[in-house]
Structure formats: structure tokens, C-alpha cells
Fold this protein.
Amino acid sequence: VDGGGNTLPVQALTYTVVVPQAITSILQGSTDVDVKGVSAVIATGLQNSNGTVESDTAQSDLQVASNGVKASTYTGTIQYILEDAGL
């Protein structure tokens, strides 16, 4: 629900992290992980990771639950936190 009382009917919010083939031995990405309202792993550093490698692309996909969504009606912010479970 935004400040104007409008509710965007979100069905799913998925996240994909693409990792270059050259570094898949130290970083693994994810494909279409649903992160709507839950914690989820979107990338995993493996045994030899040291915090200096980078993924290629990261993208999210927002799916709404109805066809009645009107353009320029909703306002809001998608907020996310990246967390290192090893810390």
C-alpha cells in the first residue's frame, strides 16, 4: 500500500544473479528466486571466495496478480538488504 492508499497486487518478485563462467568455482548465482516478503539466497560465495569477485548481471522481475493495474498509479520503494551469513 502506498501513501495514496493504492495497493499493487504483487504475485511474485523474483531475483536472478548471473555469474561469469570464469568464476563459477568461487561464486554461484541464482535464477528466478522468489524474494517477495521472505529472505532468500541469491548468490553464494564458495570455499575460495574472498569478497573481491563480482557477478555479471542482477535483475528482478515483478509479477502482478491482476490485469487492472494502471500506469502511474502506484508509488513506493523496493528495499533489499544484502547480508553475509558468515559474519
In short: The first strand starts at residue 10 and ends at 17. The chain has a mean pLDDT of 83. The radius of gyration is 16 Å. The beta strands are 10-17, 27-28, 30-34, 44-45, 58-64.
